[in-house]
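Subgroup meeting minutes
Present: P.N., E.W., G.H.
Scribe: E.W.

1. P.N. recapped why we're keeping a running log of single-chain structure predictions: easier to compare across weeks, and new members can see raw inputs and outputs side by side.
2. G.H. added today's entry (205 aa).
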Amino acid sequence: MTKTQSFLNLYAGVLTIVFAATVLMANAPKVVEFDEITTQRINVVEPDGTLRMVLSNHAKLPGIIARGEEKTLDRPQAGIIFYNDEASEIGGLIFGGRRNSKGEVVDSGGSLSFDRYEANQVVQLIGVDDKNDRFAGLAVLDSPSGNEVHRRIWLGRGDDGNATLALLDANGRKRLVLLVTPEGKASVSVLDQDGKPIQQLLPVD
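Output recorded in log:
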């Protein structure tokens, strides 16, 4: 065997090894480990590119996305937005809080919500504490038409400090209310469709 043939055989072997390594690396799972990541937005997508989740700061938080098409909406929060199999928003976790030019606390609080398919929220866990509102609780909602949203259940604390369990009808009218004041006075009220008490169990002074 001549030196030229030996060189060609060696060259061919090296190329074969390089080719095999390239194929193996291309097919290997692409897993990268980091100790720390600093970024403004992360998009989680399916293998075909369908958007499933966005984790973002305030500046890059998307508007309303339905079937992959985005409509502009200014949200004063950062958070995580969830999307269904068709890249339509299906809920999210948002949070914020800041002082305006007058030094007033605005947009302070957080919300975890889940939506109906191509409709509005059905469950929301929310807490707000700023210059306009101060309440926290769990709401179960209904939107039969897909447009109007009505609470069916509210369990929480309102601006007045009262702890309340309210059951509402399909039109969002309170029909049964259990209430405890900050001072500890408890009451039960059954209401008609106009909000007038039909029966009440009131505290005794």
